[in-house]
């Protein structure tokens, strides 16, 4: 009878040190394979396999697609690719981003739950926002074990805390004790129930991450249509009520938690404001030139008209610059969004009014 031999681990900010501490004391002959997703930029090289190999006795590598799973090995997600699990081997896929990341934690956790059910241990370490929460919920529903780093022990406690808030957690421990727990669980006998059915929604979401579903077929999609658009592609988001956890996924597969949607909207708003400021500054420069040109031609009435518009544009630019430099968009999204939307609406009306003159 096998033990908990599939250990999937997700981390983000502060995760490198947590991962090093986790693998440092794991024995070389542990009868389990470890799979690691750490959020990294798509265009950055990953040295995590070398770091983890030096930290302990277990070898770590970036696997190729369809690499066979072997015990005593750490498989690390490549940049810009999801790491996923099939029965007996790993998959490396460049599927749609989830929670604004590729690689993301949720696709790994869901695929492990589908393939190995009760044999899976899911571990959430230090990180921001909440990637991994939905995947850990899938592991629990399939009979696996849920583990989170104690938020007090994490450099960034948001990911562990989100899991604690939304999933029935079996163990909440400091990293050093998680390492001891994994060693014990690897030898703890697991009674598999291969005849139990996998939730249909889980199967659909795994296939979506693998790009194996048919977006034009409503039966391949999960959730119900919402009023929101996908921050990644602009398509309609479908709303998924996953227990107490509200999530979204678009037709082509981009997936978001509520926190991820809000974070993406904040970034989009910030970008829009900087574009608006650039446009206003260009307008100021053009009006200043036109006012000077009209004055030089002796057309004082036209110069005064341009000067009035110039003063108004400068006032708007100063207000917008102040909003960008002083508003705390992250800590007060609602207030800043309302102020920004109101301001953009007003300046848009001014632009339209000017264009008609």
What does this entry show, briefly?
This protein has helices at residues 15-24, 48-55, 105-116, 133-141, 158-166, 175-187, 200-209, 258-296, 300-326, 333-356, and strands spanning 6-11, 33-38, 60-61, 74-76, 82-86, 89-93, 120-124, 145-149, 171-173, 224-229, 236-242, 245-250, 255-257. The protein has 357 residues and is an alpha/beta fold. It is elongated, with a radius of gyration of 26 Å.
Q: What does this entry look like structurally?
A:
The protein is α/β, with parallel strands linked by helices. The chain has 3 domains: 6-187, Methylesterase CheB, C-terminal domain (Rossmann fold, 3-Layer(aba) Sandwich), CATH 3.40.50; 214-253, no CATH class; 260-356. Helix content is 45%, strand content 17%. It is built from 10 helices and 13 strands. It has helices at 15-24, 48-55, 105-116, 133-141, 158-166, 175-187, 200-209, 258-296, 300-326, 333-356; strands at 6-11, 33-38, 60-61, 74-76, 82-86, 89-93, 120-124, 145-149, 171-173, 224-229, 236-242, 245-250, 255-257. Strands 3-4-2-1-7-8-9 form a 7-stranded parallel beta sheet, sandwiched between helices. Helix 3 (105-116) packs parallel to helix 4 and helix 4 (133-141) packs parallel to helix 5. The relative contact order is 0.10. Residues 328-357 have low confidence and may be disordered.
Explain the layout of strands and helices:
Layout: E1 6-11, H1 15-24, E2 33-38, H2 48-55, E3 60-61, E4 74-76, E5 82-86, E6 89-93, H3 105-116, E7 120-124, H4 133-141, E8 145-149, H5 158-166, E9 171-173, H6 175-187, H7 200-209, E10 224-229, E11 236-242, E12 245-250, E13 255-257, H8 258-296, H9 300-326, H10 333-356
Parallel strand pairs: 1-2, 1-7, 2-4, 3-4, 7-8, 8-9
Antiparallel strand pairs: 5-6, 10-11, 11-12, 12-13
Helix pairs in contact: 1-2, 1-6, 3-4, 3-7, 4-5, 8-9, 8-10
């Amino acid at each position: 009878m096998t033990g908990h031999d599939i250990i999937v681990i997700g981390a983000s900010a502060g995760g490198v040190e947590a991962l090093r501490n986790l693998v440092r004391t794991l024995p070389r002959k542990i009868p389990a394979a470890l799979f690691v997703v750490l959020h990294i930029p798509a265009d950055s090289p990953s040295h995590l396999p070398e770091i983890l190999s030096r930290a302990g006795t277990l070898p770590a590598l970036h696997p190729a697609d369809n690499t066979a799973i072997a015990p005593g090995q750490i498989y690390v997600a490549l940049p810009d690719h999801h790491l996923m699990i099939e029965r007996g081997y790993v998959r490396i896929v460049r599927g749609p981003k989830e929670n604004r990341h590729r690689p993301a934690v949720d696709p790994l956790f869901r695929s492990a739950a589908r393939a190995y059910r009760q044999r899976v241990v899911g571990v959430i370490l230090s990180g921001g926002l909440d990637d991994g929460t939905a995947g850990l919920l899938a592991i629990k529903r399939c009979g696996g074990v849920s583990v989170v780093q104690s938020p007090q022990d994490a450099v960034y406690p948001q990911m562990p805390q989100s899991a604690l808030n939304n999933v029935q957690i079996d163990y909440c421990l400091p990293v050093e004790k998680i390492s001891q727990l994994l060693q014990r669980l690897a030898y703890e006998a697991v009674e598999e129930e291969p005849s139990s059915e996998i939730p249909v929604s889980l199967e659909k979401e795994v296939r979506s991450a693998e790009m194996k579903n048919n977006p034009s077929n409503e039966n391949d999609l999960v959730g119900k249509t919402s009023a929101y658009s996908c921050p990644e592609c602009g398509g309609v988001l479908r709303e998924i009520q996953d227990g107490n956890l509200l999530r979204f996924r678009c037709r082509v597969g981009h997936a978001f938690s509520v926190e991820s949607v809000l974070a993406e909207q904040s970034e989009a708003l910030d970008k829009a404001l900087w574009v608006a400021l650039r446009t206003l500054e260009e307008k100021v420069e053009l009006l200043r030139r036109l006012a000077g040109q009209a004055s030089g031609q002796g057309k004082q009435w036209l110069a005064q008209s341009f000067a009035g518009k110039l003063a108004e544009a400068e006032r708007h630019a100063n207000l917008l610059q102040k909003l960008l430099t002083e508003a705390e968009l992250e800590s007060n999204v609602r207030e800043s969004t309302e102020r920004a939307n109101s301001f953009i609406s007003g300046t848009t009306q001014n632009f339209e009014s000017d264009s008609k003159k």
